[in-house]
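Sequence in, structure out. Go.
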Amino acid sequence: MNGDSGPRWRDLVRWSKDYAWGVSRACRVAPGMAAIWGGLQIATGFLPLALLLASRRALAVLETGAGRSELVSAFAVLGSVLLAAPVLSTSLQWMRRRFADRVQQSLVESMHHQACHVPYSFFDRADSHDLVHHVRVNTLGQPFNLLEQTGLALQNLILLGGVLGVLVGYAWWLPALLLGTALPGLVVVAKFNVESVRFNRATTPLQRKGSYLSWLMGEKWFAAEIRMFLLSRLFGSMYSRTREEYRRLETRMDTKEWRIELGYSALGVVGFLAGIWGLLELRMAGAVLVSDIVIAFHAFTMGQKLFRGTLDNAGQLYRAGAFLKDFRDFLRHPSDPPVDPEAVPLQPLGKGIEFQGVRFRYPNASRDCLDGLDLLVPAGKVTALVGPNGSGKSTLIRLLCGLYRPDSGSILLDGTDIRDFPVDRLRASIAVLFQDPVGFDATLRENVEWGNPRVDAARLAAVARSAGLQELIEKCPDKWDTLLGGRFGGRELSGGEWQKLALARAFVRDSPICLLDEPTSDLDGWAEADWYERFLAWSASRTSILITHRFSTAMRADHICLIDDGRILEQGTHVELLERDGLYASGWKSQMTRQDR
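Output:
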């Protein structure tokens, strides 16, 4: 919040909007719980003031020698306040846990929903990862924090008003002294809160890097590489350097905060001593009782704590509102339209899939990945895509799935641009296996059925045969209900077994289009030949694209296309391409020669 008054005013308006949104969002989750919690919060806030006033009355009755009945009455009031305190505080804590959990769950669900619906390209940018990090680490608890800090601020203001009223009854200068020694800290603490938010934003890349390195060294996925390439010391030193750099910056902020705290506390001590000395002067002049000094002492101390609490509340409110801007920005990010899990797939294609002059470049890339690509994938046939790494094969699959959109050109299904189809219907029409298939730590059945929750037992058995899963199912102790993955104590699988499972998840969708990216990369030669026979039977009426680096797999396709540098360089059947004696034939001969050795 630097610069002239204009930007500061705009920041305040923006913060006010974020504040109002956060509080209303928290209250909408459970309005009844919010009302009960708010009532308990306010009632609990009155307790210290009630205790102060009840104590003052009891001490005054005791010191002035009033009758026994007045003493009993005063102590009955004091006892009632003391009994009410634990009832209200424990009830407030119980309700706080319940309410906070509901709010937290609602926000996490909103984050998950948005994360699954932002465009796929959202995750290609570093600032998007910074934003998600802010949301996950700093923001999810902020709406309830806003509500809680608002309640605490109201408590403090109510109590502060009561304390000032008590003090002014003894001497007008007591509340003036309290205000004079407390208010200067407001400006200093406010500036520090603004700076701390900026610090958090500026150091997000460092925090993310440290979290990544820590995660990398603690996950089994990376464990073999780390051990075999002796990377533990390297990654450990990288983590240490990252944390040291962050700690250096954090220490600078902590030192600044320490100086502020020290100055604020010193000013408070000066004010406190001046107040006590003034009260002693009043006592020596006979203007107040000893009990009055005791109560005024507690009131002044309470007032200082309340001012400190109010400053803390203001800082928490500002930081919460500032972090909520990240959450609102994330939720307001353009997202894909809502999808219907019951979407009906397209009918089997009659003509095929056509790529017309498709051009695409990834964010921050220096050149096009696809450079005006033209390709016709005939309907009901298997088309194999071959070519060197980075030639654009996997990108073509992602474009067809609607994960990215071409920068120019069109992708047509039987003459209709895929952008004219609802995205849920398009994706329901595609059975896909990506290059790095996912294995879920869930049961074997769930790993397959999540591809199509409506699948019946007969279809599930057929899919298992097509994907080559029967042997794995027979080896599993609980068959389809066997828990897989070591994260929760399930059965570990080999790379080839996970790949078959992912294939089954793709096959279980009764879709007219099949896209497989390196489906046999983890299979040996015998398993590959056996699987391909079953795949041909399964894909008989489907339009299939098969990406592979194995010419032994590509040779059996109906149509073969060689891609390089984002363009189709050669296409035809295996025999035709060998007769042409071009790049395909050269690759075939080279691979066959290596196999013969």
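Check: The beta strands are 352-360, 370-378, 382-386, 408-413, 416-417, 430-433, 513-517, 543-547, 559-564, 567-572. Residues 357 and 372 are 4 Å apart (CA to CA).
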